[in-house]
């Protein structure tokens, strides 16, 4: 057997080996509690939508790639600006393992810069069976957006990109209903000015047509959230 053949086989197997090595068989996560305030007034911000997603990744020669969500949660800040996510687990991942999006936090309130908060990379973090957010117990500031509506739409396009890992999951929109409703309202404001790009409930209905038998109608699902 030639050295070239062996090298070729190892090159093909390496991504799978990297993806398997060192991952725990089950994961758990600690509770998260934090407070959100206006960066200028320092007052609590009520009604901020907060999503938390624990994203699974697998290793490849080019780096790590997302392969799904182990857990997705959603909360809304109260009058004191507080939000809370309960602890969960142990839970077995279908594939891959957790890295620094363990969890990723996304915060949105219309009129403010959105925030995306990940954990810092740690040595051997993928081997840890219990994960925690570095933002637990912290005060998180959100800045009012100062700019044109076009600039705000461009800014929120990055929120849309960050949410894509959740929305790409089958029935993923069911995991973050409050965020979808808030973005739908913002999308309608933009559309009145001829600005498109943010996902709306109607656009998600079209996108998930092929999954309607398993997930149901997006539009019908959100009717229950209408006042």
Textual characterization of the structure:
- The protein is of the alpha+beta class.
- The protein has 2 domains: 13-145, Sandwich (Immunoglobulin-like); 147-227, no CATH class.
- Helix content is 31%, strand content 26%.
- It has 6 helices and 11 strands.
- It has helices at residues 3-20, 149-167, 177-192, 201-207, 212-215, 218-223; strands at 27-29, 32-38, 49-60, 63-76, 82-85, 88-91, 97-98, 104-108, 115-117, 130-131, 139-142.
- The strands form 3 sheets. Strands 3, 4, 7, 8 and 9 form a 5-stranded antiparallel sheet that branches.
- The longest helix has 19 residues, at 149-167.
- The protein is globular, with a radius of gyration of 20 Å.
- The chain starts with a helix and ends with a helix.
Number of strands: 11
Strand content: 25-35%
Whole-number tally of structural domains: 2
Helix and strand run = HEEEEEEEEEEEHHHHH
CATH class of the largest domain, anyone? Answer: Mainly Beta
Q: Determine the fraction of residues in helical runs and give it as a percent range.
A: 25-40%
Secondary structure category: alpha+beta
Radius of gyration: 20 Å
Q: Determine the CATH topology of the largest domain.
A: Immunoglobulin-like
Lay out the secondary structure.
Blueprint: H1 3-20, E1 27-29, E2 32-38, E3 49-60, E4 63-76, E5 82-85, E6 88-91, E7 97-98, E8 104-108, E9 115-117, E10 130-131, E11 139-142, H2 149-167, H3 177-192, H4 201-207, H5 212-215, H6 218-223
Please describe the structure with a list of short key phrases separated by commas or semicolons:
227 residues, alpha+beta, Immunoglobulin-like, five-stranded antiparallel sheet, three-stranded mixed sheet, 6 helices, 11 strands, 31% helix, globular
């Amino acid at each position: 057997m030639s050295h070239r053949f062996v090298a070729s086989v190892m090159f093909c197997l390496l991504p799978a080996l990297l993806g398997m090595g060192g991952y725990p068989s089950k994961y758990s996560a600690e509770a998260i509690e934090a407070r959100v305030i206006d960066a200028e007034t320092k007052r609590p911000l009520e009604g901020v939508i907060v999503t938390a997603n624990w994203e699974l990744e697998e290793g490849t020669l080019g780096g790590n790639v997302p392969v799904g969500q182990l857990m997705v949660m959603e909360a809304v800040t109260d009058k004191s600006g507080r939000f809370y996510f309960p602890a969960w687990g142990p839970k077995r991942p279908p594939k891959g393992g957790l890295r620094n999006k363990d969890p990723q936090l996304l915060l949105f309130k219309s009129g403010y810069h959105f925030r995306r908060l990940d954990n810092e990379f740690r040595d051997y973090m993928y081997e840890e069976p219990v994960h925690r957010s570095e933002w637990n117990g912290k005060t998180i500031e959100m800045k009012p957006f100062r700019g044109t509506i076009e600039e705000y739409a461009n800014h929120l396009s990055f929120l849309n990109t960050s949410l894509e890992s959740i929305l790409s999951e089958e029935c993923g929109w069911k995991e973050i209903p409050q965020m979808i409703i808030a973005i739908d309202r913002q999308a309608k404001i933009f559309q009145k000015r001829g600005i498109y790009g943010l996902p709306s409930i109607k656009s998600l209905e079209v996108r998930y047509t092929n999954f309607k038998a398993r997930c149901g109608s997006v539009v019908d699902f959100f009717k229950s959230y209408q006042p």
